[in-house]
Amino acid sequence: MVNFSLEPHQEKIREKYRDFTAKYIIPNSRKYDQLAEFPWEVVKKAYDEGIMNGLMSKEYGGNGFNLFEGAVASEELGYGCIGTGISIDANTLALTPLYIAASEAQKKRWFGQIVEQKAVAGYCLTEPNAGSDVQGIKTTAIRKGDKYIINGHKRFITNAEVSTILTVFALVDPTRGSRSLSAIIVPTNTPGVEIKPRLQKMGQKASVQNEIIFTDVEVPVENLIGDEGYGFIIAMKTFDRTRTGVAALAVGAARRAFETSRDWSKKRIQFGKPIAAQQAVAFMLAEMATKVETARLMTWKAAWEYDTNAKNLGLSSAMAKYWATDMAMEVATDAVQVMAGDGYSYDYEVEKIMRDVKLTQIYEGTNQVQRLVISKNILK
Ligand SMILES: Cc1cc2nc3c(=O)[nH]c(=O)nc-3n(C[C@H](O)[C@H](O)[C@H](O)COP(=O)(O)OP(=O)(O)OC[C@H]3O[C@@H](n4cnc5c(N)ncnc54)[C@H](O)[C@@H]3O)c2cc1C
Predict the structure, then answer these.
(1) pLDDT band at 380, cuts 50/70/90?
(2) Whose CA is closest to atom 45 on ligand 1?
(3) What is the mean pLDDT of residues 236-265?
(4) Nearest atom within ligand 1 for CA of residue 154
(5) The pTM of the whole model exceeds 0.90
(6) Residues in Cβ contact with 84 at an 8 Å cutoff, skipping those fewer than 6 apart
């Protein structure tokens, strides 16, 4: 039988993440929105409280969540602040290539190092001429003896300036183009890794991005993840796993925007009665509540399919990502509209949520790219 209620251990995960969000993320979210800095104090606290590395196996020091439990946790982080949530969750993006294709020895080494150092990692796929089109990647990793020599330029890399390791996608044989794409671990302090100044951006300011230039960066061949030429598959399989997390963060942010505007509308008196008593406003709130529910169900279903080894994982995660993030943008925009001048002001969180959720429609594949994935799946 289908059951939509959480099991006791899943409830506990939700409570733990909800509590962490209330204690450490919400009180700091405005501060980091203004500072536009990596929220180290919150991330360190997340390590101390067992919030980091949710999807990493317990044997390596993570929480050992399946994707469904991860989605429950990420919704709570997104409720507090998507930028901070991404700073906590981005390790999953950077380390999923290892989860998918690394040897046990590699997992032990790199996961172990991340946990021991209470560190964060970066995922380096995007380049100036390779955004939606991953096949446009030009960065090379040419083998010389027992080393790869990496040269190239990555862009928009989350966590770059604070990472200890980077998962870099590069061509081991440029004559074979993306068929030679490979995933390689590069410690950020390797000579030749140059991290450019931080990107200035509209929202999610508690998450940082940089360009990275690689000039004759030497790494040992044992840093290759999986086989040479397996990089494109690793990158796509990574997104099958991580897009559900983006959807969950967006559901959390939308829930917060809805609740904030709902509570406000019950208190704000105009024309002698609460704004919520105007049917036009009440119907907006009804639609917002329904949208949050439907997006959560899609997110949970995509996560459940991943956990139960269903086929077409790319299809359900793309559907959940595009649906939940488009929904969050609509709900956040409506929350600002319901609250009007107050919604637009810094006194409430909804203007920040509106800026923050915009990015969820863009990264880990734009929502046009998600529709591309979906249409290819349903038409094949
Ligand atoms: C804040 C932030 C954080 C990021 N973090 C990371 C990270 O950690 N690691 C990483 O590797 N990358 C990261 N990215 C990069 C992100 O994944 C890309 O920005 C995204 O994939 C889109 O690429 P682009 O910006 O180059 O847009 P483009 O690919 O140039 O797209 C421009 C427009 O064209 C549309 N479009 C493109 N191709 C098609 C098509 N075939 N059909 C229909 N429409 C199309 C797009 O939807 C978009 O509207 C991040 C980006 C940002 C802004």
Answers:
(1) confident
(2) 368
(3) 98
(4) 11
(5) yes
(6) 25, 28, 29, 32, 39, 42, 77, 206, 207
